[in-house]
Amino acid sequence: MDLDYFSYLKEKNGSERIFTSIFNQTEIKLIMWTKYKFEVDKILTSKAGNTKFWINKLDQTWQIVTKSVSDEKDSESVQFVDSLSEDLEWDHYVADKHTSILILPALPDRSIIVRPKHTLKVLPKTSFDFFIKIPVWIQLYSSANKPENLIMEFPSVKMSSTWFGEPDNGLLAYSLMDDIIHKIDLKSVLNFEALCPVKIRNESTTVLNFDRLAIEAELLTLYKGDNILCTSEVLLKHKGDDQSSEVQIGAGNPKLDENLKQINSPRILPSKNLIKKSFYIIKSIAQY
Fold first, then answer.
1. Is residue 121 part of a domain?
2. Element containing residue 275 per DSSP (H, E)
3. Dist CA 108 CA 104 (whole Å)
4. Domain for residue 207, yes or no?
5. Which is nearest to 111 in space by CA: 65, 151, 159?
6. Rounded to whole angstroms, how far apart are CA atoms 146 and 247?
7. Which of 116, 153, 214, 246 is buried most deeply by CB count within 10 Å?
8. For residues 161-179, b (16+ Cβ closer than 10 Å) or e, as one string?
9. CB 22: neighbour CB atoms within 10 A?
10. CA distances (Å), 80 to each of 40, 44, 63, 131, 282, in order?
11. Domain contains 93
12. pLDDT in tens, 40-70
C-alpha cells in the first residue's frame, strides 16, 4: 500500500481514508473569514497580504476601497472605526438593505506555475511529496454566500503573470514566487495562504526533470480548519516524456487539520474539456 505524507487510501466498503500528518501543529487564528454586521457610522478596515481594504454601508450601497501597500506580507485583524485618517476614492455597489458582509477566501482565477528553487530529478518508479502556499483571493458577499450576492473579489497578494507552454500552445497563469515546501511548520503559514498538497509520481522508466509545473487552481476546493486553509490534494502521474501525464484531484477532505470544512467551491468543476486550456502536456483529469 502506498503511504504518503498526507494520507493513504484504503479500499474497504467503498472508500475509507486513514491519514497521518507530518507537520508541526501550531495554533493559528483565522479571524477574518466570517460575517460582520455593520453599525451606523462604522467603517470596516483590514489587511491581507499586500492589500488593505475598507468597507462602508449606506442604505442600499456598499462603499469599498482596496489599496496595494508595499509593507511586508502580513494580516491585520478586522476592525470597525469611526473615521479615517486618509481620503479614499470609494467604489459604490448598489445591492440590498442587508447590514452584514461575508468575507471569504477563494483560490486564484488562473493556474499557478510552481518553480522549485533547483531543478529536481525524480527517479523512475519514485514518488515525491511537497506543499505549495497559494495566496488566496478575498471575496465580499452581501449577507450570504450566493453567486448573486458577490459584490467583488480581489487578490491578497498580486502575483506576476507568466506564460506556460509553447508560444502557440499554452496558458496564461500566475507565477508563484515561493519555493516548494517539504515539511510544514504552521507558524510559517499566514492566514491568507492556502496549503496545497502535491504528489508527483514518476511511473516512467526514465528520470523526470521537474523544473516547472502548472497547478490549475480553478479546479481545487478550498477548506478551512481550526489552524489552516488548505486545498484539494493534487496527484500528478508522469508516464513518460512521449506520453500524456495524468492529474488526479482529491474529491474530499485532504485531512491536513482537525475540523476541516469546505469554505469555498472550485471556480470550475473538473472536466476533460478544460485540460487543453489549463495544462501543457496534461490531457486527462480524474477524481479519486
1. yes
2. helix 275-278
3. 13
4. yes
5. 159
6. 30
7. 214
8. ebebeeeeeebebbebeee
9. 13
10. 11, 4, 14, 35, 47
11. no
12. 889 999 999 999 999 999 888 999 999 998 7
Length of the chain: 288
3-state SS, one letter per residue, for 35-73: EEECCCCCEEEEEEECEEEEEEEECCEEEEEEEECCCCC
Q: What pLDDT, on the 0 to 100 scale, is given for residue 27? A: 41
Which residues make Cβ contacts (< 8 Å) with residue 200, sequence separation at least 6? Answer: 122, 127, 128, 129, 208, 210, 213, 236, 238
pLDDT per position as a tens digit, 101-120: 999 999 999 999 998 888 88
Contact 255, 7 (CB under 8 A): yes
Does the structure show a pLDDT above 80 at 11?
no
141 occurs within a structural domain: no
How do 161-166 and 169-175 pair as beta strands?
A: antiparallel
Q: Determine the structural domain holding residue 243 and report its residue range.
A: 8-27+108-135+159-287
Query: Per the structure block, which three cell numbers stand in for 221?
Result: 476546493
Query: How far, in Å, CA of 44 to CA of 80, rounded?
Result: 4
